[in-house]
Amino acid sequence: MAWTREQMAARAAKELRDGYYVNLGIGIPTLVSNFIPKGMRVQLQSENGMLGMGPFPFEGEEDADLINAGKQTITELPTTSYFSSADSFGMIRGGHIDLSILGAMQVAKNGDLANWMIPGKMVKGMGGAMDLVAGVKRVVVVMEHVAKGKDGSEEPKLLHACTLPLTGTGVVDMVITDLGVFTIDKKGGAGMTLIELAESITLEEIKARTQADFKVALDGKQSDVA
């Protein structure tokens, strides 16, 4: 069975480390705030000028003035601080964010990322993703494994090379999909490696729905490129 959005977010939360400063992208990544391990100190940073976000509020407890960069209502913590968007991007561009967890439309086997526009469709703006992938120490992508058309067709999102406009080249370190987890050796040239499968998902299912070549390293055993 493929992972749900919540299970994908919970898996992404395992990449957090105590003391990290973390930026969460729009979509599934925002759910990661609900799965921070108890006792772990993580500061969530938002491009609109907030450091120290708590989990999403319960229904009826929302504050319309307290939002993240994706305009979702959030909660604050005793350690929360507020500042201008310019200061927020100064933190990002200055390399002060340890980890960014982003959504994506496409990821290539060398770590290229496309997540900001589809040609011909209305674009609200590129947001902060280009700054994040350039200035953050580590990038984790969380996304559905394939794009599904209205007619039920499926298009792979893990590709030999991205076909959509790029957000960044060679920037992705890990991809978490509803089917499994891949690491990307973006500097060493080893490419993409499957390290974990979602429960009940087989390697054959992954291969059938992935365009990119990848190695397999499950249960400590590594095999050739799939």
Automatic annotation (TrEMBL):
Q: Which GO terms describe its molecular function?
A: CoA-transferase activity
List the InterPro entries: 3-oxoacid_CoA-transf_B (IPR012791), CoA_trans_fam_I (IPR004165), NagB/RpiA_transferase-like (IPR037171)
Query: Has UniProt tagged this entry with the keyword Zinc-finger?
Result: no
A Pfam family found in this protein is CoA_trans
Protein name stated in the entry:
Succinyl-CoA:3-ketoacid-CoA transferase
Signal sequence interval, chain numbering: none
* Family from the record: Belongs to the 3-oxoacid CoA-transferase subunit B family.
Which positions are tagged coiled coil?
A: none
Which keywords label this protein? Answer: Transferase
User: Which organism is the protein's source?
Assistant: Microvirga vignae
